[in-house]
């Protein structure tokens, strides 16, 4: 009973989903530090980030159910190997917009923020 009570008190503001690419981790870590207090977010990393929509949806479901998140943040990046030759910015924007639309349809109470991260560390909001 005590264990269940403790689990039910765990709350996070958001889930932040990124690609696994090591080249971007410092940029992402700095961005997270600027935008979230410690211990207020869940984090998932998958090759291609929003490219794996079914995977991120399952993680968002868990984060929403267990940690009562209010926001999902998706970050794709320039020169993504998981996208290969199809990794041009237009493809990332399409995938991020589709992911946002699907997330909002399944989890209507969640706010969704999407970004395209450039090699120079610039975060471009996708709206």
Can you tell me about this structure?
The chain has 127 residues and is an alpha/beta fold. Helices cover 40% and strands 22% of the residues. The chain is built from four helices and five strands, in the order αβαβαβαββ. It has helices spanning 2-8, 25-35, 53-67, 89-106, and strands at residues 14-18, 41-45, 71-77, 111-117, 123-126. Strands 2-1-3-4-5 form a five-stranded mixed sheet, covered by helices on one side. Strand 3 (71-77), helix 4 (89-106) and strand 4 (111-117) form a beta-alpha-beta unit. The chain is globular and about 45 Å long. The relative contact order is 0.19. The mean pLDDT is 93.
Record the SSE blueprint.
Layout: H1 2-8, E1 14-18, H2 25-35, E2 41-45, H3 53-67, E3 71-77, H4 89-106, E4 111-117, E5 123-126
Parallel strand pairs: 1-2, 1-3, 3-4
Antiparallel strand pairs: 4-5
Helix content: 40-55%
Major β-sheet profile: 5 strands, mixed
Q: Please, how many domains?
A: 1
Order of helices and strands: HEHEHEHEE
What is the number of helices? Answer: 4
Radius of gyration, taken over Cα atoms and rounded to an integer in Å? 15 Å
How are the strands of the largest sheet arranged?
Answer: 2-1-3-4-5
Class computed from helices, strands and strand pairing: alpha/beta
The stretches of 5 or more residues where confidence is low (pLDDT under 50) are none
The CATH topology assignment is Beta-carbonic Anhydrase, Chain A
Report mean pLDDT, rounded to a whole number. 93
The CATH superfamily is identified as Carbonic anhydrase
User: Total number of β-strand segments?
Assistant: 5
Shape: globular
CATH uppermost class: Alpha Beta
The name of the CATH architecture is 3-Layer(aba) Sandwich
Beta content comes to 15-25%
């Amino acid at each position: 009973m005590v264990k269940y009570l403790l689990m039910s008190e765990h709350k996070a503001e958001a889930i932040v989903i990124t690609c696994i690419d090591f080249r971007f981790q410092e940029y992402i870590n700095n961005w997270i530090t600027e935008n979230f207090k410690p211990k207020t977010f869940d984090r998932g990393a998958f090759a291609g980030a929003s490219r794996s929509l079914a995977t991120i949806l399952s993680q968002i479901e868990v984060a929403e159910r267990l940690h009562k998140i209010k926001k999902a943040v998706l970050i794709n990046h320039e020169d993504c190997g998981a996208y290969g030759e199809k990794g041009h910015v237009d493809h990332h924007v399409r995938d991020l917009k589709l992911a946002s639309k699907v997330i909002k349809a399944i989890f209507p109470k969640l706010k969704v923020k999407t970004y395209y991260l450039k090699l120079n560390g610039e975060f471009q909001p996708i709206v």
